[in-house]
Amino acid sequence: MKIAISSTEPSLDAQMDERFGRCPCFVISDSEGVDSDLVENSFAHGSAAGIQAARLLADRDVSVVLTGRCGPNASDTLEAAGIQVVTGCGGTVRHVLDRFLGEIGESPDASSERPAADGASSDGVAPATGGRTALQREFEEGVDSREEWYLRSLPGI
User: Fold this and answer.
1) Burial class (CB within 10 angstroms; exposed 0-12, middle 13-18, buried 19+) of 62
2) Choice between 59 and 147, residue whose per-residue pLDDT is larger
3) pTM exceeds cut of 0.85
4) Which of 27, 63, 88, 91 is the most buried (most CB within 10 A)?
């Protein structure tokens, strides 16, 4: 699975850019969070920036986009390409990626950063549920979307 994060600079340590279509670049990572490509968003200053950026990511076989906001036209284009969009993200690119990978169970190291919730131990693992966190159980039990799942995982929400 390829995951694209809207970024202010071409680095995992850069701040994530809240704007999908107008971000200067994307960091595209594999589902292990090990291999990353840095892609300039040459459409950031033109018209229909979101649609063009969505096509750029579709051409790179991206499966998931993590961003702050995504306009309706870009969202429709991403959906038509079969790309899942998770909005409401913030922080550094690395933090957003680690958080997302930890929440979907792809990165065991990221799970230790999750806050304890609903009886989970301080390392984010619920002891009586086969190692699943409360958020993983909620997702399996019908949380409406990964976006909602991600947002519930953030501290203070």
Assistant:
1) buried
2) 59
3) no
4) 27
User: Tokens standing for 148?
Assistant: 């909602």
Q: What's the chain look like in SS3?
A: CEEEEEECCCCCCCEECCECCCCCEEEEEECCCCCEEEEECCCCCCCCHHHHHHHHHHHCCCCEEECCECCHHHHHHHHHCCCEEECCCCCEHHHHHHHHHHHCCCCCCHHHHCCCCCCCCCCCCCHHHCCCCHHHHHHHCCCCCHHHHHHHHCCCC
Nearest Cα to Cα of residue 64 among 30, 107, 25: 30
Q: Which residue has the tokens 């203070």?
A: 156
Strands 36-40 and 25-30, bridge-based pairing? antiparallel
The residue assigned the tokens 């304890």 is 116
Domains annotated on the chain, with CATH: 2-86 (3.30.420.130), 114-153 (no CATH)
pLDDT, tens digit, for every residue of 90-145? 999 999 998 988 877 654 343 333 333 333 333 332 233 344 444 444 444 555 55
